[in-house]
Amino acid sequence: MIKLEKIEKVYRTDKIETLALSNVNLEVGKGEFISVMGPSGSGKSTLLNVIGLLDAPTQGAVNLNGRAIDSYADRYLARIRNEEVGFIFQTFHLISDLNVVDNVEIPLLYRRGLSGKERRRMALASLDWVGLSSRVQHFPSQLSGGQQQRVAIARAIVGRPRIILADEPTGNLDSRMGDEIMGILHDLNEADTTIVMVTHDQRLAERTGRTVRLFDGRQVN
Amino acid sequence: MIKHLFKMVWNRKRANFLIGVELFLSFLVLCAVLTVCTYFLDNYRRPLGFSYDDVWHIEIAHSTTRGDEEQLKSQILLTLSTLDEIEAAAYVAEVPFGDDFDGVSIFSDDGKRILNRGNWVTDGLGKVLDLEIVDGRWFNREDEGLKGDAVVINEELAKLLFGLESPVGKDIRRWNAELLESRFAGDLAKATTYKVVGVVADFRGDDFAPSTPFVFRRVGLGDDYVPSDLLVRLRPGTKAVFGEKLLARLQSVVQDWRFSITPLSDHRTTNFKLYLSFITIGGFVAGLLIVMVSLGMMGVLWQNVTQRINEIGLRRALGGATRYIAAQFLGELLVVTTISVVFALAIIVQFPLNDAIEFVHREIYLGGIFAAILLMYLLVTICALYPSWLASRVQPAEALHHE
Amino acid sequence: MLKNYIKIAFKVLLRRKFFTFISLFGISFTMIVLIVATSFYDHLFGPFPPEIKLDRTLYVFDLLYRYPQGGMDSADSENLSHYAVERFIRPLEGIEQVSIFQAFAHSHTHYNDQGDKVDSYLKYVDAAFWEIMEFNFVEGAGFTQRDVADAQQVTVINAATRHRLFGDEPAVGRTLKVNRQELRVIGVVDNVSRLRVLAQADIWVPYSIDARFRAQPLRGGQQDMHGPFSAVILATRSSDLLSIKADFRQGLSTLRYPYARPLIIAVDGYAETLFENMSASLFHGLVDDTEREGERFPLLLSGVIMGCALVFMLLPAVNLVNINLSRIMERSSEIGVRKAFGASSQTLVGQFIVENIMLTLLGGVIGFIGALGVLQFVNSIDLIPYAQFQLNLRVFLYGMLMALFFGVFSGVYPAWRMSRLHPVAALQRRKK
Q1: pLDDT of residue C240
Q2: What is the mean pLDDT of residues C115-144?
Q3: At which of C187, C213, C239 does a domain end?
Q4: On the CB side of C245, how many CA atoms lie within 13 Å of its CA?
Q5: For chain A, what is the mean pLDDT?
Q6: Residues on chain B touching A87 (C-beta within 8 angstroms)
Q7: Span B258-267, mean pLDDT?
Q8: Is residue C365 part of a domain?
Q9: C120 located within any domain
């Protein structure tokens, strides 16, 4: 499903060069649920960015769903992200000016060939799946942390992507809400979605398929 | 997608309100300025209806009570006719390129007052100003019997009152029932009318005057009141120095009157310069206002983009290509603009609907409004270009993990 | 403390140069337009030579002969005769001096020695004119009572005319030909702007030398009120103006008008200040100005002027509010941090106000300099003959007032928003 070969990522800001990732090789099969762990600054988020095509590696090859990413042209990447990948963030990143169902619809807006009615239908189905049907007209500020993250998940899956990338999804939640979210992720995984999750929490990582560890941009065991 | 834009704009209405107000005011200014421009341009392209080359204006200053003014004025005309250099002469109440021409009181058959401009003139004017007669004839001696009720009107008025029929020989009412009551105590003997003697193509007082219904009223030399401004047409090739001779001649006819001579083209130049200065100043101020607003708008939009960097990063992550992001910001602004324009139009449209300003036709308003709308959207788009471009350049990874 | 604010304000303004620039541009531009307009207004209505004593001056420009029907076009206006002035104006209480003159100068063509056509504006006045108006005499003096009584062939000319006829040599004692009469120059005055319609001319001449203006003989046993003159009244005290106006109208109402003109039912007149007079003539033909009762037209004119000023200021003001808001929002994280570290809303708002005032003042200064430039330009192209627009104390004060208004108006709302910024929200905005 996901294949990274000899990935290197260097950040250049003014005169300082930071080596965020070095010689990372990763293969994630279809339907796997893996964790990425490591201390802060080890490049976990960068790894997720590279997988999710949010960032181009300075060296190396990325392969998604058997398709080699040979171009980093914006429109090409945007389409792949839209169709293949779903993101979940630690800080939810919901648009506060829009209500729940409008937030969930956003990925579908960037997809061609869908009528307004269809989009609405798919968004509502998505929200139903995460158990938020009673809150569709609410605004993010009216929801608890756990509910907001569920909206984010609904948004991530609304377009039925095959890969979900989650960056510390329970980082801003208490343990009870966090467990709820993990429950939803495992449900997703059972429905054959490939999930790559960055986490601090050893406990959560243990419940996933396997763990990749990073230290200073390199893989360690 | 458009619905989405409207939603974004509506949900951010507090932030967008002030911008909307600014756009609303700017559009009002644009409409006003462009309507005025259209008005002047439209007027300018029309023919004046008369010729001013080789025409001189002689201003007469005489005392108020003498008793024989009118006789002397006849004598002056007689004297002028003896001079070789003068082809024609006539008295006029209003001199072209001078102050506004006051209209006369006329009413349509159904009692509506017809707004118009007019002039009181003697027989010679047709030749002096080289007026183009399209129906009937200009005034002459035969009209003495009509005693000041003879009129020559322009085509516009003819069409207005008589449609396609020839107005020559027909009557025009001077009062309506109400005025007859108050002015003449219902004395119907006073119910006078004008009789149309002829029709001219058009007559406009200066280059920028609008086309209006126009009435020339005949003044006979024996009438109680003869105007004190003379217009004379000179034989082509007459030198300016003839003025001295003319002045002396005039003075010799009437000792204690004062005469002052100005070529009509001089009046035109002065008048032109006056309009030009107003237009220039107005245009300049309006232009700078627009620049000021544009700059301000650019700053506000830029700030708007910076504020929403997270949102931008998110949308990019969800598959929004850069062009969509740029289009979104531009689109939001256009939506706000459209709402402001609609509100402003609700006010502006009152003007043409009610014919609020004299002699400004509906087409002028429409032209001005249309041009304003085009210009408005153009300006807004230009202001939004840089900020939208900035928005599209945002790196999603940085934006999302903005620390 | 204030010094601190100013130092910080200065740094802040420099940091975001674009915002500072567009704010300054907006303020300066608006100030330039407003100041130039104020200068123009002042030029029209303010006390300038020769109309310096405007607070004690009233003009009687014409009389109104009323028809019965009322409304527009229901009265004819005619200037006054000698008789009218002597009988109804001179005896009024509280008057220091009355002058009879022809309000509108007419253009006069003569040919000078070189044969060039010279056009001048000629005005007929009396001796009292020179007492009520205070002309700046460059040479000589005005007519005396004697001159007028004896119909002396004398004249006062303006500097421009002197220049055109005699170059830069002294003109007193020399002659010029006006209407076939040889007039001796007895005074030369500074040019008067054409916009000061009632006082201006190029050549002033005693009315008595022109046969047309000598007192009219009785006609059919009646003295006619109708003549070629206007009058200007100098009151002893400015507080007397109201009573003079009232007394004048009162006096006229006692007139039983002789039926020399059919249908006239009454004769009416108004003694008006310059502003009142000009507002009435401005609205002539647009609005029914035959009933010039009380303050209607001056109020209307003031209203129109202030309305225009406000409307014009509206757009720049909203623009400024927008820009200020953006400035604040842009620094919201900085504000959040400051608040979190204990800065009170007051301090922050105070800081912002200082910044705003600095901007406004700077904009005002640029505005003044710009306005000065514009006025210089307008004066140099001689848009209106002899008109010299200037920035004097009055205009300066108005300008300061307007700049202050701008500063306050464009700062209030943004400052209020700033004080309400929740530190946590602001910080989070930054962290994300």
Answers
A1: 87
A2: 87
A3: C213
A4: 19
A5: 88
A6: 317-318
A7: 88
A8: yes
A9: yes
